[in-house]
Specification:
Blueprint lengths: L2 E5 L5 H9 L5 E6 L2 H8 L5 E5 L5 H9 L3 E4 L6 H11 L2 E3 L6 H4 L2 H6 L3 E3 L8 H15 L3 E13 L16 H6 L5 E5 L2 E5 L9 E5 L3 E7 L5 H5 L7 E8 L3 H11 L7 E2 L5 H9 L7 H9 L6 H9 L11 E2 L1 H12 L8 E12 L5 E11 L7 H18 L7 E3 L4 H13 L5 E6 L2
Parallel strand pairs: 1-2, 1-4, 2-3, 4-5, 5-6, 6-17, 7-12
Antiparallel strand pairs: 7-15, 8-9, 10-11, 11-12, 13-14, 15-16, 16-18
């Protein structure tokens, strides 16, 4: 009976574990720095167990990897290469949902020599986005078409009925990751021209899109899109753009929070401080004046603007003590957002993923292909975010357990032998795309 080692008991681990326990021939061992979290996921299932593990304990990690047939690394991304090296030493396959780092990429040749598959980017974004993109691209190419343009947008958002706060957002994954994503620079290709956006200017570059059934959304660039020209095998395309969806108002508000200094990561003494005190300090204003007025002056925006309304709603101008001895402005912002931007019992999140391909057909016509995934969380159950990240990873693990994956090395799901079965498994679970075509063939 195969033994699966699951490292990390975070938000995606539940759907991953439950999907694999649907098989009657596997055992799962869940390890986490917090043993209680691991125990909660293992529950009372007869084929699941749990333990506490600090990944800095190399000897303990080696023992656990040695006893497994397959390892799922669902821990913070910095630990994936550590886990991967342990897997290589023991000849074990590994699955993770994170982007391929340079440290991970450097293990490719060694993994091939060891006959080991290290599958990365097999979650939602990255993950399902790759898989559906390659399904569409390969289908067009097989029919003699040429990809002229590829754009993709993904967003994890409150379902429309749960969109009830001024930010139009609630956290379904790492708050710090959401906030720091706004500091990334971006690159993309538009009509044959390369566009570079410094991290500080990211939120100035958004457009409004209308998505049928969901209304108006902001769409802004997501990191560096250019490597996907080669990864997707469409180096001749004139447009390559990957972006993020948010409800209207997000970009201007995050831009203002960054300009005020609330994405800063330098620790400072905060004992006895309120959010108002920190806002005044960041605005460079004396303590005796109104914090909203000070922020408005620093941002050169009217005090009654909707951006400052959102800041006020969040509590950035309030006198309630922070209750922190030390911390960064980002720590404070994260804490306040976690308190306000959370899902209440019974509320659903929503995943929206949309690909648009411009295809030159074999007869010289132009065809536009739009593929859209809209998925909702389960009220008082798994979020859509956790399902769309955890379930494709579980399906990838299943391919390895069943011996159906021949490729070895550091992999991402762009080959048909990976994405085909995973997309089919997701569709069986109700996670499926709707495809529309227009133009001339």
């Amino acid at each position: 009976m195969p033994d699966i080692l699951v490292l990390g008991a975070g938000f995606v681990a539940g759907p991953f574990i439950r999907a694999l326990l649907e098989r009657d021939n596997v055992r799962i061992r869940v390890g986490d720095l917090e043993p209680d979290k691991a125990a909660a996921l293992a529950g009372s299932h007869p084929r699941a167990s749990s333990f506490g593990l600090d990944l800095r304990d190399q000897a303990a990690l080696e023992i656990e990897v040695a006893g497994a047939d397959l390892v799922a690394s669902l821990v913070p991304y910095a630990f994936h290469p550590v886990v991967a090296r342990a897997c290589l030493r023991r000849g074990k396959h590994m699955v993770t949902t994170s982007y391929v780092s340079e440290a991970m990429r450097a293990l490719d040749e060694e993994a091939r020599r060891a006959d080991v598959a290290l599958i990365n980017e097999v979650g939602l974004d990255p993950g399902i986005d790759h898989m559906e993109a390659m399904r569409l691209i390969h289908a067009a190419q097989a029919d003699g078409g040429t990809i002229m343009g590829f754009t993709s947008f993904c967003g994890g958002l409150p379902a429309p009925e749960a969109n009830d706060n001024p930010f139009g957002y609630k956290f379904s994954w790492s708050p710090r990751g959401v906030l720091l994503a706004g500091t990334n620079e971006a690159r993309y290709l538009k009509d044959g021209r390369e566009v570079y956006i410094p991290g500080g200017d990211l939120f100035d570059h958004f457009e409004i899109q209308t998505v049928p059934g969901l209304g108006r959304l902001e769409a802004y660039p997501n990191r560096n899109s250019l490597p996907y020209l080669d990864l997707y095998g469409i180096a001749g395309a004139r447009t390559m753009f990957r972006g993020t969806y948010r409800y209207p108002g997000w970009c201007r508000t995050l831009k203002a929070l960054a300009a005020l200094g609330y994405l800063g990561r330098e620790d400072r003494r905060l004992a006895g401080w309120s959010a108002r005190d920190l806002t005044l300090a960041l605005a460079g204003s004396p303590s005796g004046i109104d914090a909203r007025t000070a922020a408005a002056a620093r941002l050169e925006t009217p005090p009654e603007s909707d951006v400052l309304e959102r800041m006020a709603w969040l509590g950035l101008f309030g006198d309630e003590p922070l209750g922190m001895e030390n911390g960064s402005p980002l720590d404070v912002l994260e804490r306040l957002m976690l308190g306000r931007l959370r899902y209440r019992p019974g509320e659903r999140d929503m995943i929206l993923l949309r690909h648009v391909l411009e295809v030159r057909t074999r007869t010289g016509g132009l065809e536009r292909v739009v593929s859209t995934l809209v998925d909702y969380g389960q009220p008082d159950g798994d979020s859509s975010m956790s399902r769309t990240v955890g379930l494709p990873a579980a399906a990838a693990a299943g391919l390895l357990l069943d011996g159906k994956l021949r490729s070895r090395g550091v992999l991402v799901p762009v080959q048909p032998e990976i994405y085909g079965p995973i997309l089919a498994d997701l569709a069986r679970r109700g996670i499926a795309f709707r495809e529309e075509r227009s133009g001339t063939a």
